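Worked example 3 (structure in, sequence out).
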């Protein structure tokens, strides 16, 4: 596959970031991935404390998480691994003519995350103690990783995940496109991405493609056997409670938390309630 180039190594959003070179995978060519350790006190080969891997939303990046991974890792007593997926932040951008496939989230879970873990020397013993924490599209990727690699994690926390496409999601994403093209939203997002159009249109185009409308990972959830916490805000304008209720119907041991006065981003809308829910759940598994 063609190497699409590398993101610039310096940016206001890149302070503290490092870069991992990933080899070609079944779904993508060689990649340069921006990543950052949180609470990293020693070499990544050590087993103590466990690692929490953070998977960002459809328009996210390392910088857009702000300080929430740090706050949560301190609460959990874990190290954190935060990274920008291809097309986002300072990672390899999407080529202008590249359109993401319908199964792009599966490719991220199946190929990109394991390749990054390999590149960082995170072995199977460490992965068995690792928690995967994902938001929105990142929550879907976390679910897929937990299903594809059920022995390579300790548990998963998914926040406002998508397991099928709802009308409310498509409507809100269409509205976001209008805002991106007519307001200062593009300029605001450009603070967090070296190639903001790569980040925005990669996500927006596939979600608005009619071919994506039947997308569903509902049946793919069945193999999940590690502890699973699914969290959704009652005021989420990108998805309804049907998303996490469906997860519970497929994964009998899943625990659900439904947050009042909370929209699509609980780590911004209700961080205290979110952190309390995650800390209680993780503590109960130890």
């Amino acid at each position: 596959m063609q190497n699409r180039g590398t993101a610039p190594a310096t940016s206001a959003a890149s302070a503290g970031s490092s870069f991992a070179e990933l080899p070609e995978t079944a779904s993508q060519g060689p990649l340069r991935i921006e990543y950052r350790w949180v609470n990293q006190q020693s070499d990544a080969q050590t087993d103590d404390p466990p690692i929490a891997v953070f998977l960002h939303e459809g328009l996210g990046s390392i910088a857009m998480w702000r300080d929430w991974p740090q706050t949560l890792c301190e609460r959990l007593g874990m190290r954190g691994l935060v990274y920008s997926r291809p097309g986002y932040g300072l990672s390899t951008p999407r080529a202008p003519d590249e359109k993401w496939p319908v199964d792009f989230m599966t490719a991220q879970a199946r190929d990109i995350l394991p390749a990054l873990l390999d590149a960082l020397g995170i072995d199977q013993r460490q992965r068995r103690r690792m928690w995967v924490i994902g938001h929105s599209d990142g929550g879907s990727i976390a679910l897929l990783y937990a299903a594809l690699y059920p022995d390579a994690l300790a548990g998963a926390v998914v926040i406002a995940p998508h397991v099928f496409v709802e009308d409310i999601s498509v409507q809100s994403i269409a509205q976001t496109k209008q805002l991106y093209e007519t307001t200062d939203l593009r300029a605001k997002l450009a603070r967090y991405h070296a190639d903001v159009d790569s980040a925005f249109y990669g996500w927006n185009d596939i979600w608005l493609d009619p071919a994506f409308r039947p997308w569903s990972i509902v049946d793919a959830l069945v193999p999940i056997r590690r502890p699973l916490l699914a969290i959704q805000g009652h005021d989420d304008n990108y998805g309804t409670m049907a998303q996490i209720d469906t997860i519970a119907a497929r994964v009998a041991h899943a625990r659900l938390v439904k947050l009042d006065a909370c929209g699509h981003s609980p780590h911004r809308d209700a961080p205290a309630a979110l952190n309390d829910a995650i800390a209680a759940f993780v503590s109960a598994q130890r």
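Notes: DSSP finds eleven helices and eight strands in the chain. The chain has a mean pLDDT of 92.
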